[in-house]
Amino acid sequence: MSKKALVIGATGLIGRNLVFELLKSSEYSLVTVFARRDMVIKHDKLNQILLDFDDLSDFGNDMEVDDVFCCLGSTKAKTPDLELYRMIDFEYPLLVARMAQERGAKQFLLVSSLGASKDSSVFYSKLKGEIEDAIASLNYRSFHVFRPSLLLGWRKESRPLETVSQFLMRVLNPLFIGPLRLYKAIKGASVAKAMLVIANKSESGHHVYLNNKIAELAED
């Protein structure tokens, strides 16, 4: 039986690649996307809904899906207002997780970050750890967390420091072997492929995939 998917954060580096992967997959008959801006994609399976995330509660009927993929996230540079930052990285994903689960969703796949921990002194890492724990507490049949390292790939928005870091990591990546693979930069497209691989397995329980495992899954 083909499944229905919901993607939030679909216009970002991972999210956009993930939508392409889902549209190509025979496992899914419908891919619903919540986005602030048009993805400029046309496909028979694509149901794109442009919205203000503050109005998420008005779109409950569109959350009647099997699998939820959350690629939503920001940065301090892009969102210096920490209250708004928390809304994007914590409140919106948690609300979608709750509403989708109430409507029958059984599987939730979340893009987090390497070093995520609710006990971290770093705001970004702490927030990622908090959303992981909050969604875990909902007890989805399947909850999968992906913690990639620095992401490689083209973004629409300008991130100067990240662009420099990407350049350096492309040069240094060959040196990250053995245990250091955990910190090796990874393509956003690879994270998307790994998410689809795991979604198709539909394994129950709470699972966390670190950077090196994500890379392995993308090669399957």
CATH homologous superfamily, by name?
A: NAD(P)-binding Rossmann-like Domain
Largest sheet: spatial strand order: 3-2-1-4-5-6-9
Percentage of β-strand residues:
15-25%
Mean of residue pLDDT values: 88
Q: Give the H and E element order.
A: EHEEEHEHEEHEHEH
Low-confidence stretches: 161-169
Overall number of domains: 1
Rg, nearest Å: 16 Å
Looking at the structure, what is the overall shape? globular
Share of residues in helices: 25-40%
For the biggest sheet, the summary is: 7 strands, parallel
**Reported CATH architecture:** 3-Layer(aba) Sandwich
CATH class designation: Alpha Beta
3D structure, described in words:
- The model is unreliable at 161-169 (pLDDT under 50).
- The two termini are 23 Å apart.
- The chain has a seven-stranded parallel sheet, with helices on both faces. It has a two-stranded parallel ribbon with strand order 7-8.
- It has one domain (3-150, 188-219): 3-Layer(aba) Sandwich (Rossmann fold), CATH 3.40.50.
- The chain contains six helices and nine strands; from the N terminus they run E-H-E-E-E-H-E-H-E-E-H-E-H-E-H.
- The protein has 220 residues and is an alpha/beta fold.
- Helix 5 crosses helix 6 (211-219).
- The protein has helices at 13-24, 82-102, 123-136, 160-172, 188-201, 211-219, and strands spanning 3-8, 28-35, 46-50, 67-70, 107-111, 142-147, 151-152, 186-187, 205-210.
- Helices cover 38% and strands 20% of the residues.
